[in-house]
Amino acid sequence: MAIERTFSIIKPDAVRKSAVGGVVALLEKAGLRVVAMKTVWMTKAQAEGFYAVHRERGFFGDLVKFMTSGPCVVQVLEGEGAVLKNREVMGATDSKKAAAGTIRAAFGTDIEQNAVHGSDSADNAKIEINFFFSGAELAALS
Ligand code: CMP
Q1: Global confidence as pTM
Q2: Is residue 141 pLDDT above 80, yes or no?
């Protein structure tokens, strides 16, 4: 499988419980490398823009409120099959259903406070990386 990049958010619930190091440890154990990382406290407009695909969903308002409730850590991860690998180590969207050993089982609470976000495809990874990281920040990685 090819080396690829994916995008990851350590959400406000995980940051609040000082789980950034714990999340990164599980990502690294799964074979993913952190190639860019920064803390971002999203504005309402940024969260609405990032999650625009969910705009019509009933949970959209709560999702935006949660994602703007405190700082997140946004990251670019790299590794073989990084998109799929990241989603495997994240676990099921609903933390209550996440398998043991996954990030959401370890640090999530429920379907909203689920500790992490990860891109669901290589195409969306590019879009999401470019949403948070500038060309100058990414140029240093290649
Ligand atoms: P994430 O991977 O960040 O992508 C969209 C998010 O919406 C998802 O994780 C969940 O945190 C959230 N979400 C999905 N479904 C629901 C739901 N039914 N109720 C509340 N939040 C949801």
Answers
A1: 0.96
A2: no
